[in-house]
Amino acid sequence: MRNKINTISLTRERKGIFLMATKITGSAIRKARKEKGLSQKQLADGICTQATISLIENRNVCPNINILNQICQRLAINMTDVSFNPRYGEKLFSYIESDMRRHCYLQARERMGRVSFDKLESKLAEGKYYCYQGFAELYIDDDIEEAIYHFNWMLTKYPYENLSFYQAWSNLGLGLAYQKLGKTARAPKFIEESIRILEKIQSHKNRYTNDDICAVTDLYIDIIATYVELEKFDRALKLCAVVLKRLTSTNSIYKIDVVEELASRCLYANGQIVEATMRQFTAMFIADLRGNHQLFEKIMTKNQKHLIELVKKELSKNDGHETLIV
């Protein structure tokens, strides 16, 4: 009877392997079992089958999270010490990256606290982690030397094609770090390398997705904003033109308002007041269309408040009168 129950149990567990596949460090469980002086059969007793223990230890797979929990309790070890769900890790990384791209560094750092570097299972994940860590050091801890270390480590140890975007991001990070150090002559070298990598990424049109367009645009915006701070207005304007051309060629209005506003700042700095003002209004209208209320209000109530009030005043003079349009 017991053998029959075990057979049924094993069958059910095998069916669940692909439904709830959690990656296990089987060798850690084997080590803990032997330290307790337990055989596979003794460890399995009342929890699962001996075959399941063998599966966990030899193939690093557990069919059921409850089984794993009970095994860990019997061995007096933490489940997080022997298990890793890669899909959860990827999801968590996507949240961290979203926070980073929105400059929500404190929130990103809090999420990063849930990541165990030792359990990252790919070079891609490790490379991303060092890139994220660099920005956390730069903007939260204000530890520029540590930030430079993490960016350099990412660039030297993870020179893989599938990490190209993060290489571009890390080069920008180095540029920002040297800018914060006051080494403004050194910063553009790394920023230009970031641009070179982004151009290479965009040259592979067959592999260039909508998500890539948004990520690359966000990075370009950070680059342009940095050049504005460095007062390299002509270079920033050229990059604005590049980004706007690529966005409009894909029928996308993603952050066009932000790019137009940055372009207006460059034009104001260059003394091109009329064109700069027109670009500000373009930014304002697109910001309203995109629901970017913060930028819309900034231009409407601060940047162009005086001009808007003048226009309203002139329009009020024509209230109730026909307006001649030539």
Structure described in brief:
Helix content is 72%, strand content 2%.
Task: Describe it.
- This protein has 326 residues and is mainly α.
- The protein has 2 domains: 2-84, lambda repressor-like DNA-binding domains (434 Repressor (Amino-terminal Domain)); 86-317, Tetratricopeptide repeat domain (Serine Threonine Protein Phosphatase 5, Tetratricopeptide repeat, Alpha Horseshoe).
- 72% of the residues lie in helices and 2% in strands.
- It has helices at 2-17, 26-35, 40-44, 50-59, 65-75, 86-101, 105-112, 123-141, 144-157, 164-180, 187-203, 210-229, 233-249, 256-269, 273-290, 293-303, 305-317, and strands spanning 22-24, 61-62, 83-84.
- A 3-stranded antiparallel β-sheet has the order 2-1-3.
- The chain is elongated and about 90 Å long.
- Residues 1-21 have low confidence and may be disordered.
